[in-house]
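Lecture notes, part 5. Sequence design as translation. It can be helpful to think of inverse folding as translation between two languages: the language of shapes and the language of residues. The source text, in structure tokens, appears below.
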């Protein structure tokens, strides 16, 4: 594999993906530029910039418009009178629906969790833990009526503006995600948590006693391989039986959307990549289930039903709680201030002498908008690191803002300020080409504010 990476792909993973994308073997879709959590971003301009920069980056690397998008955390918000969940005495104002932003950028389809297709109330006990969530959901639910008709995650649906949504399948989700009842918890597989120091090498299997690290048995790759074969065969059976059941209900072929974070395969579940390989082989050999992309489905089977969706995500509780709670709500107050300042700079100063400074401020804002910061604060997995990184990007943005104003009004940067700008450009340098006009779009018309 390393030799192929060096010679065939010229040391570029993207070259490999582009080859298979061009050949039709896979369909690469895009995502938000830095995985910004769409429903909670404070301005429509920031929402649009995340999507547009994701689309433009995809076109730069793959040479074509992406048809689909992975919405960060599968989070969706309909059009309604939105109000900041962390500000007091603030009036609500009309916000664009996520599907409107996608349509503007040429996106044809996206993915949601299954509860959003069915239209259930996702909040549960989280509404009492953080009441602001209950207020947000009440505002959005005024414009959504739970469906009387039957909806299925094995069907794809069109929203009123023509964008299509697919829903995650719960059956295959449990099989692959669950460490308790799913494949990754098999006793023969490599134990993730027990490591030998120094070096952090792993020599043990999960074993029958999963909880006690002291009872772990030596890892046997041959036994693990047997389990991989069994699990791949079982997944084929699950796919076939699930689709057969849906065909019996709907009298038409369905589509299973089996979607996962790629970090699962090879990281948390060491044998995961080999499982995917064996599953692909077995599906090919079996021949009853066709492997397709979202674009393939739309081409041969256009959506037949128009629906509306409630607000929500694929996070715990089905709503925003993981990204907005008592532990991380302070981050949104800081972000909203920066997003308003970014909109102002882009509309008023973007083509003047301050352009270089504003461009770097945009990079800092994009990096601060990553949904990972709130997620890691909530889960306590890397809270200190997340808070430091988030605050660093916000602080840099807030230091760049007055520098941009100074230059725009005719001033010049002193040696210390120039050094700070250069340090920012070296430290945080994603997206070499940023169109500041992305933050100067009138959400109502889609036109550039001159």
């Amino acid at each position: 594999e390393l030799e192929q990476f060096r010679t065939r792909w010229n040391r570029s993973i993207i070259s490999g993906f582009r080859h298979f994308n061009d050949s039709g073997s896979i369909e690469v879709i895009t995502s938000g530029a830095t995985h910004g959590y769409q429903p909670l971003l404070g301005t429509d301009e920031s929402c649009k910039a995340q999507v547009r920069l994701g689309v433009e980056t995809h076109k730069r690397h793959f040479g074509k418009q992406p048809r689909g998008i992975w919405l960060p955390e599968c989070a969706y918000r309909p059009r309604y009178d939105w109000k900041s969940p962390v500000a007091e005495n603030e009036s609500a104002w009309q916000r664009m629906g996520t599907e409107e932003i996608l349509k503007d950028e040429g996106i044809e389809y996206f993915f949601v969790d299954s509860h959003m297709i069915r239209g259930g109330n996702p909040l549960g006990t989280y509404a009492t833990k953080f009441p602001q969530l209950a207020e947000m959901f009440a505002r959005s639910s005024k414009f959504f009526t739970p469906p009387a008709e039957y909806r299925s995650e094995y069907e794809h649906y069109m929203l009123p503006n023509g964008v299509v949504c697919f829903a995650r399948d719960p059956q295959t989700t449990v099989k692959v995600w669950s460490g308790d009842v799913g494949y990754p918890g098999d006793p023969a597989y490599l134990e993730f948590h027990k490591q030998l120091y120094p070096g952090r090498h792993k020599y043990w299997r999960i074993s029958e006693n999963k909880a006690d690290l002291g009872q772990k048995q030596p890892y046997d790759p041959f036994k693990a391989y047997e389990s991989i074969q069994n699990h791949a065969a079982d997944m084929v059976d699950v796919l076939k039986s699930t689709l057969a059941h849906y065909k019996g209900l709907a009298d038409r072929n369905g589509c299973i959307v089996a979607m996962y974070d790629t970090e699962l395969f090879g990281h948390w579940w060491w044998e995961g990549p080999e499982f995917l390989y064996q599953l692909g082989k077995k599906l090919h050999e079996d021949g009853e289930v066709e492997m397709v992309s979202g674009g393939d489905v739309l081409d041969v089977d256009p959506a037949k039903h128009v629906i509306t969706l409630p607000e929500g995500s694929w996070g715990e509780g089905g709503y925003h709680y993981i990204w907005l709670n008592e532990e991380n709500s302070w981050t949104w107050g800081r972000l909203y201030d920066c997003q308003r300042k970014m909109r102002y700079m882009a509309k008023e100063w973007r083509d003047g002498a301050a352009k270089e400074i504003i461009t770097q401020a945009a990079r800092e804002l994009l990096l601060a908008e990553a949904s990972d910061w709130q997620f890691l604060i909530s889960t306590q997995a890397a809270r200190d690191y997340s808070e430091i990184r988030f605050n660093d990007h916000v602080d840099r943005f807030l230091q760049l803002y007055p520098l941009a104003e100074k230059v725009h009004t005719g001033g010049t940067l002193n040696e210390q300020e120039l050094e700070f700008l250069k340090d920012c450009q070296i430290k945080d340098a994603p997206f070499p080409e940023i169109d500041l006009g992305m933050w100067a779009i009138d959400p109502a018309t889609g036109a550039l504010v001159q």
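The translated text above is only one of many valid answers, since several sequences can fold into similar shapes. The CA atoms of residues 241 and 374 lie 39 Å apart.
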